[in-house]
Amino acid sequence: MNIFRLTGDMMHLASILILLNKMHTSKSCAGISFKTQALYLAVFVARYLDLFLHFVSLYNTLMKIFFIASSAYIVYLMFNPLRHTYDAPLDTFRVEYLVGISAFLALLFTGKYNIDEILWTFSIFLESVAILPQLFQMTRTGEAETITAHYVFALGAYRALYLFNWVYRYYTEPKYYDVIVWIAGLVQTALYGDFFYIYFNR
Where along the chain do its domains lie? Predict the structure, then answer.
């Protein structure tokens, strides 16, 4: 654990809390991509299947539970009680390509050919592009609610801080080396580039 990872984790938590607060206070999920939220749920389920098999720390376990539970809850809210406010005609990104390419890359670059490792690698690649439906929807409308913009910014900040976390670990942990995570993280951060520029200017 280091300051960059801890701050990144807090930004990730903040992004979810911002989104949940928006949905509960406005009783609406307008402007939110259901496809992005479903992809994040898939990411967390695939990555944290070892939840009850490998204990690292209480912090690690609680974070895993929170990310799975909160993502499932957001998907539930959008699919059921807030479904009438969902902008389905605007949420048209073809996510099957993202899932298919991520699965192909996971099979190609996995460290070990067992189900845990393949699913973990799949989750890394899928997370790097999961925000695309949300960004695409915001681009189509040409605008976003302030709260939605804050949500996306917090997600982008989380990923950017993790880049610093990896640099820090590379220089402080002699055996730390994970090219797949680094490349996927760089791709994910780059996807936020235009959004960050617009966010800070507005």
Answer: 3-201
